[in-house]
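=== RUN LOG ===
request id: a7f3
mode: sequence -> structure
chains: 1
length: 890
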Amino acid sequence: MRASCLIGFTALLLSSTAHASPKAMTEAPAKVAIVPDANAPKGRLSDAAIPKAYRLDFTILSEADRFSGHDEIDVTLKAATKSLYIHGRDLKIGKAVAMIGGKATPAIFTQVDQSGTARLDFANVLPAGAATLAFDYTGSFGDSASGLFHVKVGDAWYSWTQFESIDARAAFPGFDEPGFKTPFTVSVTTHPGLVVIGNAPKVSVTKVAGGMEKHQLAVTKPLPTYLVAFDTGPFVHQTGTIPATPERPTPMPYGAVATHAQKDKMGYVMAETPRIVSLLEQYFGEPFPFPKLDQIGTPIMPGAMENAGADTYGDGIIFLSPGATTSDKQAFGMIVAHELSHQWFGDLVTPAWWDDIWLNESFANWMGYRIGNAWRPELNIGVGALDEGFGTMNTDALEVGRPIHQPITDNGQIDSAFDGITYGKGGQVVAMIADYLGDEKFKAGVRLHLKRHAYGNATSEQFFQSISDAAKDPRVLSALKSFVDQQGVPVIDVRRQGNGIVASQSRYAFLGSTPPPLSWTIPFCVRVGAAKQCALLDKTTTSIAAPASGLIMPNVGGAGYYRFDMAPADWQALIAASGTLSPGEALATTDSLWAAFRAGKAPAAWLFAEARAVAANPDSTASIDGGRRIAGLRSRGLISAASLPAYRVLLASIYTPRLTALGFNPAAGAYAKDDPGRQNLRHELVNLVADDARDPAVRNTLKVAGKKYLAGDTAALDSGFLGAALTVVAEEGGLPATKMLVDKALSSEDPGFRQAALGAAASSGRSDAANYLLSLEDKRMRSYDRIGLIFGVAGNAETRDLGIDWILTNYDKLLAGGNGIFITSRLPQALAVQCGADQADRIDAKVGASIRKANVGLLNYERTLESIRHCGVLRQAKSTEIAAALANAR
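=== RESULT ===
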């Protein structure tokens, strides 16, 4: 993330103790002063000093406010120097020295900016060559998944680390960049009897002063700082071995790590992890690249992290109950496969700098769906990749944006690289290129890349070269680069002409938007009737031979990262057939039709006709995609109050008959024998019928079951209906029900119930409940709980304005909350529910200056403003048409 050279060194180096006392660690220190330095790098450090190895020695008492550390970094100095820039954020440095040849040179450590760039000023000039930098310091635990953070679960405290992207600097001074890969040796001193988990296997546990125990971990393989991990507390640690495979001739130790609250839910991750590891080894043709694997849960992680040999997940992702839903299992398979694929692609071979982070995430996103699908084909995980990719196109189509491969010159830009462009677009582009090349050629390129750069770093160009060398097809580079190195979504206009079709490419634009024109080299596959044709579209217009008649499907399998448009007659035929298309093609049809509507080229009536037709599709994701998008019109204010009854009638007419045909009994396990797809479809239909169609019978059934569940009868309600049932309870029970749900949620360590209950409370649509939630102070509330409530209130159509006003009033406080990559850079998205240029101007006048000054989440913010303005243009142009189409769509 490992043997140590610590013997005797600390005694020689420092006369004072390396660790603060437990008492000192509970005392809040003076705020760390930041002294601006105009010469300090805003992004990448220079090569003035290259780290060669770290030795990190921590004292971690998870119940305290602070931790302490002793940090030694072996470096090579390029030239004689009296100062160095490194990283360290909000650390109280007790002593800093440089050791050369047994001689200590004192240094002064000064933090020079908010991002954690720091300067070391030495008492004397250091000569070029080998040196060791050493620090004694203390730091603060965070309460969100960022840096070294702690959480109280039940009566016990636990701590975890989350260092990606640049939060290792909040735990120890160092060179916090992906391009610096070194071995790490980590030790943790803590209370006796506790568990310490890190990247490497444990070497020893020894008694030390004060009745404490020191856990020594082995030296790691070379790692960047962001992949280092160490977790401390009274964890339950189940262990096992993953059997040998053709790629790995010996069994491998692995385990699951949980708080006591999750100890009875560890069976699924223990049983299923070996299969996923084996599938990944088979694909990469290489053994698991680290000596052990632990799958670690934490209650406040909203996602997951690929720390080498020590993956970390939100509890609800990996700790599943026996009655887990299809969507729970889909998320498990995709996310676990995603994070474990990083052990090769990201951990074994690491990006040279953050502008190549897409190499990690885009590839892992594709692998997550691919390997997840191979792990449990019946769960149909793979279709989720297409759903995610098409969803990302609305972001990629904005004029404000970035390419997948984004130059990063400032630390404030780093977190913006972890967005839908990297995951959704990048994953689908990888899938498109792999599909075009063929699986074996693409896999050969990936394997070549890993062999060339194992335990080192690589750039995008080196990845491109490996793929090209293996495929022996240089044209693939132009296709890959045209999607990776520029933003935007292609739209291909397909028209019949004589004995074939003509495909014309252009850049997709929303109604009222005029982005600069672009062109791509597009792997394009079209089916006319039963005849499939594929071509690389590298010109504005390309003619393709095809039958003169037959249904046109311009994105075979839905695998292409592009949208399409057609003549009205061909659209009508494709809409009518959408219920019989493959899942990917049905999703592509829905997306392209909606895109045509938002570009001003398709009538609203087609949207409702397509939703009715595609509802017959046997795939649960494709079947309800149209309904979800129609619901989005309401949430953005594009359906007026006068049209609301017609909107509910339309959705009821489409989805209630499907639910009736499936049957609906909310009791736990009532449909346990149904196949996963049928189970998932029922859960999705209940949400649409109860919430959007407002079916009184379904709502009453949910309310009765929800109240029984809350009263202790857990058999009354299947977990797949939990969110829908609790939402009805909140909507119809008012403020008392909201308070009851919040109390039960905050008293629970069941991640599924906690999230569902708080989500239901936040989405009740009642202003009194919303005001109560936004002002709520409860010591059981965690940072992630609070953020969820804020997003929930703002995301509900009835409390949207109230929630947005509260966010705007409190934005500076939220921005300063230290919530890390998972929350802070995404906070502007909570504002995206507004519609109209006037709302965008109001938001910008209120918080724009603060966001630009802080430079946190700025790209997301600018995208949000543009999206709000586009919504206003669409509403002005189409609201009357939408109302008329709803009135005639029954």
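=== NOTES ===
Residues 858-887 form the longest helix (30 residues).
Residues 1-30 have pLDDT under 50 and may be disordered.
=== END ===
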